[in-house]
Amino acid sequence: MDKSRYSNPYLIGVFLGLVLLFTYYTMGRGVGSSSSFARVGVAAVAAMAPEHAGSNTFMSAFMQKGRPVLMEWLIFLSLGAALGGLFSAFVGRRLKGEIARGPAVGVNGRLWLALAGGILSGFAARLARGCTSGQALTGAPELALGSWVFMFCIFAGAYGAAYFFRKEWL
Amino acid sequence: MGPLYKYGWFDFSYSLQLAVLIGFCFGLLLERAGFGNPRKLTAIFYLRDFAVLKVMFTAIVVCMLGLLYFSVLGWLDLEKIYLLPTFIWPQIVGGLALGVGFIMGGYCPTTSVVATVSGKLDGLVFLAGMVIGSLIFAELFPLLEGFYNAGAMGAIRLSDFFGIQSGIVAFLVCIMAVGAFWLVERVEKRFGDPETLPEGGSKFKTIGAIVILILGLALAFLNPDGPASPGQESVKGADAKATTLDAPRSQAAPAAEGFKIVHDEGC
After folding, report:
1. Which among A126, A129, A141 is the nearest to B64, CB-wise?
2. B17-39 per-position pLDDT tens digit
3. Are B64 and B173 contacting, i.e. CB atoms less than 8 angstroms apart?
4. Which end of chain B, N or C, is surrounded by fewer C-beta atoms within 10 Å?
């Protein structure tokens, strides 16, 4: 599709490692993003049906710190990530409205698969207490056991399922 | 001595500003690596382009070496860093499911944010899906609670699990990373499309690999877990040492203005 070349992945990796290190040095914690989406969902439920949100063990855990559900470090991190991505896409002239897909899949099919994949990912990230950033990228440098197991399971799951979705991408 | 926030250098509202800055760098780097594009992301699973693995493993190695060296030098108190607890069964199942979600949807959570802002409608749909998926999990939580807490092993590191010091684990991670880079470069040469793969001199790669291995090997000898490494001793004062003795990892930072550090969830 787009022939634009991206930066060298090793170089990006070095910078990303330094950003992570800076996060640990200043904040004493790592990055993450999946809980931001859980928080957005919980905030929406809490606004529409506060009793229901309050009676759910999982949702009420998000509301306990005595400040608004969305007043949270990771939400601001995700906002920053959106700004950074926007800036980089703008500078790299990759800002373009489109539906990314392989040549063999239709627009509708791609969007339904994106929705299904999103639902599965949102569910899985809560089950595992984190996603690729919050578990794998954050826990692995700390040598956390569960994060390493989790990371290899992501690769295993994706490689295992790749055959069935080849028409979506190739 | 870091982490600065846990030693009360700045307060919550400032930490949110820092979050935006860190997030900005994070999003920028992901976009620059091409991770706003699901065809680039999923190419790893068809052996065409291993950028995902290269970025992740390089970042992990750099950050891991940084953390351990900072600890050896006495700049960072690893005890005060939030260590993600291990719940082995939900993490295995969640990891497998997230992998399937990745190849199905084309994104992982953070990259879908980057894709959305660079104009991909499928990224936005994936985001909406994640909100829905999280709520489904929350609604089913009473049923899932037992499994959610299954296999609890506490905040355990690889070094605790295998009973070897973390310097040696770090060295093994470095060897694994360099080995993985070497392997995927060969696979890429075979299946990849040279048109879309970024250039990179082999000299640069070899030097990088050697630096990583040397730093890892040195760490294995330095032993960052040592009961009293000289660097740490000289930085901490006598009274600081007294507090560490009766302060387990759960203790809040000695913040001056009395704000308490609440341990955040990992992600």
Report:
1. A141
2. 999 999 999 999 999 999 999 99
3. yes
4. N
